[in-house]
Amino acid sequence: MPFCACTHTYMAYITNVDTGATHEVSFTGADRCKTILSGAVLRVVHRKALLEALAKELPMDTIRFSSKLTSMRTKAQKGSSIDLIQMEDGTTIRAKALIGCDGVHSVVAASCLGLTVPINSGRWAVRGLARFPQGHELNHDFQQFVTAGAKRAGFVPLNDKELYWFLTGKATWIGCCKRELWRLISVRFHCHGWSGHKSFKQRVEAIAFSFRFPWDIIFGNVSKGNIIVAGDAMHPMTPDLGQNECAALEDAVVLGQQFGELIAQRSRLVPLEVAQALTKYAQKRRWRAAGLIVTSYLSGWVQLGGSGWFMKFLRDVLYSRLLQNKALDVIHYDCGKLPCVVSPHAVN
């Protein structure tokens, strides 16, 4: 097969390492045919490829790299407001809106909107990207392995030559994560004959998972005047449903709907109307984002809850057999279409 930037899969196989039992999970929901036609499947893509594809849609010199925001103030202007954004290099930017997409430790969320700092979930992960120049010869299904000792490992091919893998659990055993990864999935690796491949290379990182309390998004200031947050700056969550970046793309679509309607009506953005549009965006995204945070956290909590009889019952019976497919249903979400705007250059 030719090398490609991304792949997609319809199925996940979850293997209990202690019992050897494998549970199948479909990412396509109940109506498989309809879901496949709509393109709503699990897609694995390089973050770099996604960012480059988005950046190419913008005019040249739109993006300023290595430009850190240090402060922001609002200046009244004809009954509305203009944001004056101060950058680390001394540059001042006049903007009709400030959309903070500056990650989990967002300056905009904390300093401009007063949102609470995301908390540590108590869970860590070791994850990496393995490259096989000769090809890994695996199908594109998502493989996951769980143990009663509150550990979870898995891998999914990114394409025919690259493989994303992870091992996650409670922070108390982060020091042995790398060794545990190979122990947990060595059987699968050896079955395909490439665990000792000479051309096998990988990049590894360790990371702690943080999330924002859902009630902070529901009742907090995710917008104030012409200031808003989106992506992880708004709704950091644990990665158990793989919806962090997907939710950020949903944010972008909903924001595009609000701005697109203004441009279509007036061919320009009026600061006062921009603030109203951002308020509508916040109203549309609060409950969706809060629901994703809760569902993702509980999904991970059940799977990493420990080896006691009650948690084993929750994980192996109640969640795996009855609730897992319901939890995955939240990924099937239609945030609508973007309005048709004649020319983006009409904005001033």
From TrEMBL:
<dbReference type="InterPro" id="IPR044560">
    <property type="entry name" value="MOase"/>
</dbReference>
<keyword id="KW-0503">Monooxygenase</keyword>
<dbReference type="GO" id="GO:0071949">
    <property type="term" value="F:FAD binding"/>
</dbReference>
<comment type="similarity">
    <text>Belongs to the 3-hydroxybenzoate 6-hydroxylase family.</text>
</comment>
<protein>
    <recommendedName>
        <fullName>FAD-binding domain-containing protein</fullName>
    </recommendedName>
</protein>
<dbReference type="Pfam" id="PF01494">
    <property type="entry name" value="FAD_binding_3"/>
</dbReference>
<feature type="domain" description="FAD-binding">
    <location>
        <begin position="50"/>
        <end position="266"/>
    </location>
</feature>
<keyword id="KW-0560">Oxidoreductase</keyword>
<dbReference type="GO" id="GO:0004497">
    <property type="term" value="F:monooxygenase activity"/>
</dbReference>
<dbReference type="InterPro" id="IPR002938">
    <property type="entry name" value="FAD-bd"/>
</dbReference>
<dbReference type="InterPro" id="IPR036188">
    <property type="entry name" value="FAD/NAD-bd_sf"/>
</dbReference>
